[in-house]
Every structure is written in structure tokens, then in C-alpha cells.
UniProtKB/TrEMBL annotation:
This is Cytochrome P450. Belongs to the cytochrome P450 family. Heme binds at C392. Its cofactor is heme. Keywords: Heme, Iron, Metal-binding, Monooxygenase, Oxidoreductase.
Length: 450
């Protein structure tokens, strides 16, 4: 195992990509006082995941960095942090019942309306549009309208948007990683007040569901979910905490990926024209509205999103705590250490796409959605949504909201160009104050209506 150097910067793992190029598939470093082993390669990740949910404190499990504070802000009763195999299985089935194909299909009209609203507003604006802001607004609207099913007044919508932004931004603060409880965290800090606001909104919605019965929201499906014999359902805290998890997954990661996709499409007008041609053909056959069949027909658009996630996965990877010494690719990882499943490096090393000069990961030379259209060129090592039994439960929702927005965008926008055209000789610049992938400047564009 190679030994690296510490990686500490804005975004706790922002230096990891460079270290991975230098030290290979498996190396050790430190962050926040923890020895962390970066592991890349789908086979290596799967070999480690075989040790997950082992009994008698063996194997590996998830853990919460800064549990004293993040536990209060994020929620300890969410699927992400359950390490008991049986409890995790029950929790995943119950939460997963809100993410089935049927459940997502029922949400499509609401998602479609949110996308159209954003795009129509964009086309009314004559000044340049910052795409990052549009995608944040879009995914936040889905959060309150569909995920939570809130009945917000127009003047309350900005308050909800601000609360989610403050909450998600606060989750990235290194201060929350302190090994002691921060006094007055929920009362005196911006992130604490935002979390209380969101918790109150969810509780109010639960009270309404108890009074009036189920509705079409994702929160309703969580609250009324039961196992096969009806004897087990989520506790109130589990409903609240897992609703928060879906908000985080459905806003931050989707907005990040959509922002990256908008940049790549602007840099590749030939790809953009092919997306438009596909959508115009589908529209001529199916009309304006979407359902799962229409989304399944959007094969090239699906490839665009997958290629975006290959080049720029929203997160660097996932952490696991090593409960007992494990071996991966001939290297021992001692008890008490952490492993990080390195998604970006896994994509970099994929033998089906790898180029010696690194051009396969270049945002201009390497962005080739057509590689996904054939089994002979399709990437073999791709894990932006994780792997194993903890694979992102909101994956289907995220893909649906991304495909619907880009499909409607392609149908309504004939042309869009970057305001600050990026010189072909310069690398794309990325924001340094976030742990999710965000292009610097937020992708400012001008639009021409179709």
C-alpha cells in the first residue's frame, strides 16, 4: 500500500484526485485525524462490500464523521447510517417503496410541471442565465412540491429554498466535525435554524397526512409504507430523517449533475443537436407529455447524463469504517481505519475507456455519449450512485428529474451559448468551496427559443 500525504482543502477530499493519479488504486492518507485508505476499481469495492453487515463487529460499516453535531443536523435514523443487516433491510424496503418505478411514474407529472415552469421563466429573460441557479431552483421546487408535498404560499417558497441551501451548505462545514457538541447548534447557527425549519415543515405535513390520509407526495409514501404483513412501518423520526436524505440527494446531487451536463452540452454543439433531434422525433410520436415509456425512448439523452456522471461524478466517494482488519487486493486495512470508495479514480482507470494521455476524462476530448450506445464501447466501471446494498436509493428519482428537464429544454431551446466562452486551450475551472462538482461561474448562458 502506498502512503500519500494529507488532503485538506475546501471540500475535504478535493485533493484526492491528484493523489490517486500519483499513488494508484490503493493508498493511505489522513483527514480530520482519521487514517483513510482510498480504494478504486469496481472489483476492489465489491470485495470490500462483501464484508459489510457482518456480525460480531466484523467487516466494515458506515459511520458518521462528527456524529455529535452532524447527527442533529442530518439525522441519525436515516438509511445511510443503519449498520444492523436486518434493520437496514427493513428500512431499505420501506424507504424504497417510495422509489419504485410505479411511485416515480406517479411523480412524473409534478416533475414535468416544475421543469416547464423553470424553462418558461428562462425564456422570458433577455439577460444571460446562470444555469446553476436554474437547476437549484428546479430541484428545490421538486423537493417541496413532490418529495414533501407541501402547500407553500408564493411568498414562502424563497424561505424554503433558502433553508435547504443553508442546511446543505452547513452540512459541509468542518466545524461540525468537532468531537464535542457545539453549544447552541440548533438555535444560534444558520444550519441549525435551517434544519429546525425543515423539520417543522415535515412534521406539519405528517400531521396533515394523519388527519387527511395519503396523497401523491413521496413523504406520504414514506409515512404510510408497511411491510408485507402490515406489522412494520417507519417511526416518525425515520420518516423525517429519510425525507431529509431524499431532499439532499434530490437537490444537491441532481443540480450538480445538471449544471455539469449543461456545460458539456454547450462545449459540444454537435451533441446538443443530436439531443434536440432525438427529442423532436419523440415529441412527434408521443406528444408533449412524459411518462416512463417516453423517457425510455430517450436513449441518447440517457447516454448524455451517464457520460456526464462518468466524467464528473457529483461526489468523490463513500466512506466506510473498518470494524475488523480486511484485505483488499493484497493490502491489509487495519481495524479502526476508514476506507473511501474512490468513484472518480474508478472511472479514470476503467480499461474500456482508458487513454494513456488522460484524454478519456478530458471534458472536451473525452465527452462522448455515443460510447454508451454500444456494448463494445460501453464503460465497464461506472459507480456514481455507489455499489452494494447501500447504492443510492434515490437513483431512479434523480435520473427521472434530470432526463425530464433536459428533454423539455431540448424541445424548447434552439440554441444556447456560454457567455464566457472557454478557450479551447484552457482547462475547465471548478468551484473550490463545495464538496460536489460545480463549474466555476455557474455556467452562464444566453438562450434562443425554438
Amino acid at each position: 500500500m502506498r502512503l500519500g500525504c494529507p488532503f485538506i482543502d475546501y471540500g475535504p477530499f478535493s485533493k484526492l484526485a491528484k493523489l490517486s493519479r500519483k499513488y494508484g488504486k490503493i493508498f493511505k492518507s489522513y483527514a480530520f485525524g482519521y487514517p483513510i485508505v482510498s480504494v478504486s476499481g469496481v472489483d476492489n469495492v465489491k470485495s470490500l462490500l462483501k464484508n459489510e453487515f457482518q456480525t460480531d463487529a466484523k467487516g466494515i460499516g458506515t459511520f458518521m464523521l462528527g456524529k455529535h453535531n452532524i447527527g442533529s443536523i442530518f439525522g441519525e435514523d436515516m438509511l445511510l447510517y443503519e449498520n444492523d443487516a436486518e434493520k437496514h433491510g427493513v428500512l431499505r424496503r420501506l424507504v424504497g417503496s417510495a422509489m419504485t418505478p410505479a411511485a416515480i411514474g406517479a411523480a412524473i407529472p409534478s416533475i414535468q410541471d416544475a421543469a416547464r415552469l423553470q424553462i418558461d421563466e428562462m425564456l422570458k429573460t433577455k439577460s444571460p442565465i446562470k444555469m446553476e441557479d436554474v437547476f437549484q431552483s428546479y430541484t428545490l421546487d421538486i423537493a417541496w412540491k413532490q418529495i414533501l408535498g407541501l402547500d407553500l404560499k408564493e411568498e414562502d417558497v424563497p424561505n424554503f429554498h433558502t433553508a435547504v441551501k443553508d442546511w446543505t451548505a452547513g452540512l459541509m462545514s468542518p466545524l461540525l466535525l468537532m468531537p464535542i457538541k457545539i453549544p447552541g447548534l440548533m438555535r444560534f447557527t444558520k444550519v441549525g435554524r435551517a434544519r429546525k425549519y425543515l423539520g417543522t415543515k415535515i412534521e406539519e405535513k405528517i400531521d396533515k397526512l394523519e388527519r387527511d390520509g395519503p396523497d401523491s407526495s413521496t413523504l406520504s409514501k414514506l409515512y404510510f409504507a408497511t411491510d408485507d404483513d402490515g406489522s412494520t412501518k417507519l417511526t416518525r423520526d425515520q420518516v423525517i430523517h429519510n425525507a431529509l436524505l431524499l431532499i439532499f440527494a434530490g437537490t444537491e446531487t441532481s443540480a450538480s449533475t445538471l449544471t455539469c451536463a449543461s456545460l458539456f452540452l454547450a462545449l459540444h454543439p454537435d451533441v446538443w443537436e443530436r439531443v434536440r433531434a432525438e427529442q423532436n422525433d419523440i415529441r412527434s410520436r408521443y406528444g408533449d407529455d412524459f411518462n416512463q415509456e417516453v423517457l425510455n425512448e430517450s436513449v441518447y439523452l440517457d447516454a448524455v447524463i451517464k457520460e456526464t456522471l462518468r466524467l464528473q461524478p457529483p461526489e468523490m466517494g463513500e466512506l466506510r469504517a473498518v470494524k475488523n482488519t480486511v484485505v483488499v487486493d493484497g493490502n491489509q486495512v487495519p481495524k479502526g481505519w476508514c476506507v473511501l470508495f474512490n468513484v472518480k479514480q474508478t472511472h479514470y482507470n476503467d480499461p474500456s475507456t482508458y487513454e494513456e494521455d488522460g484524454s478519456h476524462m478530458d471534458h472536451r476530448k473525452g465527452f462522448r455519449p455515443e460510447r454508451w450506445m454500444s456494448e463494445s464501447t460501453k464503460p465497464m466501471e461506472w459507480m456514481p450512485f455507489g455499489e452494494g446494498r447501500r447504492r443510492c436509493i434515490g437513483e431512479r428519482l434523480a435520473m427521472t428529474e434530470m432526463k425530464i428537464f433536459l428533454a423539455i429544454f431540448a424541445r424548447k431551446v434552439a440554441k444556447y451559448e456560454l457567455v464566457n466562452n472557454i478557450d479551447q486551450s484552457l482547462a475547465v475551472q471548478w468551484q473550490t468551496d463545495t464538496t460536489l462538482a460545480r463549474p466555476a461561474g455557474g455556467v452562464e448562458c444566453t438562450l434562443v427559443s425554438a
